[in-house]
Structures are given as structure tokens and as C-alpha cells.
Design goal:
The structure is a single chain. The chain has 7 helices and no strands. It is mainly alpha-helical. The relative contact order is 0.07.
Length: about 160
């Protein structure tokens, strides 16, 4: 029985019912072009799918982007040219690694700012909590001690 299942599975795999790979759909001349194409597909984000790259997205716009990336890579464009073209056409959102400029400065600096604020809060809390058990000079006067003793006796 297992032998029959193995033979049937092998026959299905060879019958052409297996899904086409990206190499079948987008044939490229060299391995370097294939690697560049794959890197770009993983580096560019689908504008419709929010947080999915164009390699994994089934949206029509992602398919159009894949076709355009394929055409540009096939024509010999380098990665920076392809990314710049996609950013120009679809906006900075399509690039997972946005460039550091005045528009994206807050995006890049906000994590560091939050960490610094957190450290500052910790330092302030530690300083306010005392000097680690050392005597800070806050002692009661005789009058205050007498009043405290009197209040404790009343209870």
C-alpha cells in the first residue's frame, strides 16, 4: 500500500501538476541576476498588503511590481536604480529600509529617544528612592519625637 502511494505521488509530481516556481515564471540569464531579483522581491513591500513583500503577495499590484522589477533586472538595472524607481512610483512605503532624511528622521531616531527617556526615568527614580540605605540627615527634633510618641500612645 505504501509503495502504491509513493508511486502515485511521484507520478503526480512528474505530471506537471506541481506549482510553477519563480524561476519558471521569471527566467533570468545568470545566477547573479536571479539573486538580485530575489533580493529585490524580498526588499520591496506590497503597497496593498501592508507588511508583506512583493515576493509573497498575491495582490495584482504586487504582480505588476514583480513584472517591473523583472524587466528592469533583465535590462541590467542595478538594485539602487530599481528601488529608486519603485519608491518614485509608489512612495517610500514600498521600501523596507527607508533612507535617512528629514522625512524619516523621526522614524530612525524615535527608538533611541525612547530608550534615553527610559534610562532618564530610571535614574530619577533611583535617586529619589534614597542613597541605598545611607543616612541622609533627615532626623527628628526632640519636639517632633515627643509628638510622635504621644500620638502612638493614644492609639
Amino acid at each position: 500500500m505504501l509503495l502504491a502511494m509513493a508511486v502515485a505521488t511521484g507520478a503526480l509530481a512528474q505530471s506537471g501538476n506541481s506549482p510553477a516556481t519563480a524561476q519558471d515564471i521569471y527566467p533570468l540569464a545568470t545566477e547573479a541576476e536571479r539573486e538580485r531579483f530575489d533580493r529585490l522581491l524580498n526588499e520591496l513591500r506590497c503597497p496593498k498588503c501592508q507588511n508583506q513583500n512583493i515576493a509573497d503577495s498575491d495582490a495584482p499590484i504586487a504582480e505588476d511590481m514583480r513584472d517591473e522589477v523583472y524587466r528592469m533586472v533583465k535590462d541590467g538595472a542595478d538594485e539602487q536604480t530599481v528601488v529608486a524607481s519603485m519608491v518614485e512610483r509608489f512612495g517610500e512605503f514600498v521600501h523596507y529600509k527607508p533612507a535617512f532624511d528629514t522625512r524619516t528622521a523621526l522614524l530612525w531616531l524615535l527608538p533611541a529617544i525612547v530608550v534615553l527617556i527610559g534610562l532618564l526615568v530610571i535614574v530619577v527614580i533611583v535617586r529619589r528612592s534614597g542613597n541605598g540605605g545611607e543616612d541622609d540627615g533627615a532626623q527628628l527634633t526632640e519636639e517632633q519625637r515627643r509628638q510622635a510618641d504621644e500620638l502612638l500612645r493614644r492609639q
